Amino acid sequence: MYREILTTKQTSFHCGVKVPRNFRLLEELEEGQKGVGDGTVSWGLEDDEDMTLTRWTGMIIGPPRTIYENRIYSLKIECGPKYPEAPPFVRFVTKINMNGVNSSNGVVDPRAISVLAKWQNSYSIKVVLQELRRLMMSKENMKLPQPPEGQCYSN
Amino acid sequence: MAENGESSGPPRPSRGPAAAQGSAAAPAEPKIIKVTVKTPKEKEEFAVPENSSVQQFKEAISKRFKSQTDQLVLIFAGKILKDQDTLIQHGIHDGLTVHLVIKSQNRPQGQSTQPSNAAGTNTTSASTPRSNSTPISTNSNPFGLGSLGGLAGLSSLGLSSTNFSELQSQMQQQLMASPEMMIQIMENPFVQSMLSNPDLMRQLIMANPQMQQLIQRNPEISHLLNNPDIMRQTLEIARNPAMMQEMMRNQDLALSNLESIPGGYNALRRMYTDIQEPMLNAAQEQFGGNPFASVGSSSSSGEGTQPSRTENRDPLPNPWAPPPATQSSATTSTTTSTGSGSGNSSSNATGNTVAAANYVASIFSTPGMQSLLQQITENPQLIQNMLSAPYMRSMMQSLSQNPDLAQMQNPDTLSAMSNPRAMQALMQIQQGLQTLATEAPGLIPSFTPGPPGSTGSGGPTGPTVSSAAPSETTSPTSESGPNQQFIQQMVQALAGANAPQLPNPEVRFQQQLEQLNAMGFLNREANLQALIATGGDINAAIERLLGSQPS
């Protein structure tokens, strides 16, 4: 049903133009399903029936030549009512050891991640995921020892 | 909002350019949908029935991407698709894209799988003697705990973890380095029950892809495997180590008889090349070489090959036992306690030779080697033939180019080796150090900085050592570069006791690491692991590194 609504809207993330939240999120939903990007991140609604388009799941494929290589990291992203004016809440589900991620519950600290700290309404879930992946490749993160694969945070 | 009027024919998300796609894509009615599968490297389109399951989808994908279905991980809209789900369940419609990650076996992973790996390796390497002893009588490989069974067993145990091959090779080396452990394992009732099940053993062997290739090339092998009598017999033998030794000896004798027949040597060589070489080469990656490499070298010199090449000899302990090095330097320093530089260097040389001597001694103690020696003494021509074989010659050449071997050519080394009393002293030292290792293993890692000091404080090695301790404290610092490195390697090897495969991987692969760095592989750890796994082979290491990344 969202798809009909989507067809009525053209995409544009022009700065300054305030795009209604749901339209934006629907667009991101479509992008997530179409696999826009290089295939190293993926995102979608956590629950397809979620009318509020609030809860999203994301997936980051660990970049090669890092300690995260070949691992698949699952995330939960929550787009609040003020999205896209306000940044989403991002939390890792799969355990990870990385700067800016709380090691006990996987919450991504918005002050530590630049796209979240300096959020712009043209940013999107894709941007957040790609930025997190880019951070995995940074010198400070790429060799951090990681917990065994497949472990998840308990909350 | 402006384009409110733009209605959509098919109920699909479609914008301007996508409209064409929308019309090209069939409406939901027909069963076949086109789904794009995207990996970080490539992208393929698949036409599958709309109601197919993820499992079926994976099967189609695995053909196109040339991987196993269980290596595939499909992701859609941020969720991992499980095999029992359907595409519809996840809302995968026509024209949408699914992400694919192909897992490779050698993923760096947590060590939690290691214990299970250990158990697996134990049982499977117990299975290897059987797999080698029967079938091909030409395969009289006295050192032959080939890895084939091991590989098969592990894969059947479904361990796809960590540095798979490295873990495995480490485990097997550890196993083979300790005859007591081997005995324990063989006596383990579980192992015995497993061994007594010929079907299971056959499955284990067949599961190994290299074995499968071998079988394709040589159908006789499959006959052997399928013959239950032979299987039973080999299992009996495998369970009974004494009987196995007997069998080995018989085979060796038979071989030597064959050899004496005119033209027999050629026939033997042919058999080796056709059958045994592929089998042994199949083990190459793990064990770093043909066991016969070490046979040739051991009979010619005191074993100069790098430790990694010799791991598949079963009861042989660590080739370069480090403690002898440090101990010998301690004891010899008592004689030269004035601390002359030459005294130190000779003690270091002796240290090297100790390891060699130990290794030689331990080689000689294996039953296979004993039988070989027996034959050798009976028939000197045998050695001659072996050494003159073309394949042997090429091995020798590569051995002589081995930089480690250069240490063996040190004249001091040679003279020390030919001195029986020195050898004896070194043996004692080694024993002492082994005792130390068991009693105070904690001291051993500290050997590297100040070997004799810690040894002295350790104590159980004898008065000479402890008295030498203070005087020797200064000498290690004056060791020449390569010698110190060598000793460090040996110390590490003893301390490790489990992974004697590489004296000092970083040092050894220094050159290769630099090359990999220059090529753009910046992850030093991954490079090192790859180099270790491939035994220093840069090309294979590169393939490994490339193969294990998704992008």
UniProtKB/TrEMBL annotation, chain A:
<protein>
    <submittedName>
        <fullName>Ubiquitin conjugating enzyme E2 V1</fullName>
    </submittedName>
</protein>
<dbReference type="InterPro" id="IPR016135">
    <property type="entry name" value="UBQ-conjugating_enzyme/RWD"/>
</dbReference>
<feature type="domain" description="UBC core">
    <location>
        <begin position="20"/>
        <end position="155"/>
    </location>
</feature>
<dbReference type="Pfam" id="PF00179">
    <property type="entry name" value="UQ_con"/>
</dbReference>
<keyword id="KW-0833">Ubl conjugation pathway</keyword>
<dbReference type="InterPro" id="IPR000608">
    <property type="entry name" value="UBC"/>
</dbReference>
TrEMBL record, chain B:
<dbReference type="InterPro" id="IPR016024">
    <property type="entry name" value="ARM-type_fold"/>
</dbReference>
<dbReference type="Pfam" id="PF00627">
    <property type="entry name" value="UBA"/>
</dbReference>
<dbReference type="GO" id="GO:0005886">
    <property type="term" value="C:plasma membrane"/>
</dbReference>
<dbReference type="GO" id="GO:0006511">
    <property type="term" value="P:ubiquitin-dependent protein catabolic process"/>
</dbReference>
<dbReference type="InterPro" id="IPR015496">
    <property type="entry name" value="Ubiquilin"/>
</dbReference>
<dbReference type="InterPro" id="IPR009060">
    <property type="entry name" value="UBA-like_sf"/>
</dbReference>
<keyword id="KW-0968">Cytoplasmic vesicle</keyword>
<feature type="compositionally biased region" description="Low complexity">
    <location>
        <begin position="462"/>
        <end position="480"/>
    </location>
</feature>
<feature type="domain" description="Ubiquitin-like">
    <location>
        <begin position="33"/>
        <end position="107"/>
    </location>
</feature>
<dbReference type="GO" id="GO:0031410">
    <property type="term" value="C:cytoplasmic vesicle"/>
</dbReference>
<dbReference type="GO" id="GO:1904021">
    <property type="term" value="P:negative regulation of G protein-coupled receptor internalization"/>
</dbReference>
<dbReference type="Pfam" id="PF23195">
    <property type="entry name" value="UBQLN1"/>
</dbReference>
<dbReference type="InterPro" id="IPR029071">
    <property type="entry name" value="Ubiquitin-like_domsf"/>
</dbReference>
<feature type="region of interest" description="Disordered">
    <location>
        <begin position="287"/>
        <end position="349"/>
    </location>
</feature>
<dbReference type="InterPro" id="IPR015940">
    <property type="entry name" value="UBA"/>
</dbReference>
<feature type="compositionally biased region" description="Low complexity">
    <location>
        <begin position="294"/>
        <end position="304"/>
    </location>
</feature>
<feature type="domain" description="UBA">
    <location>
        <begin position="508"/>
        <end position="548"/>
    </location>
</feature>
<dbReference type="GO" id="GO:0031593">
    <property type="term" value="F:polyubiquitin modification-dependent protein binding"/>
</dbReference>
<keyword id="KW-0072">Autophagy</keyword>
<protein>
    <submittedName>
        <fullName>Ubiquilin 2</fullName>
    </submittedName>
</protein>
<dbReference type="GO" id="GO:0005829">
    <property type="term" value="C:cytosol"/>
</dbReference>
<dbReference type="GO" id="GO:0036503">
    <property type="term" value="P:ERAD pathway"/>
</dbReference>
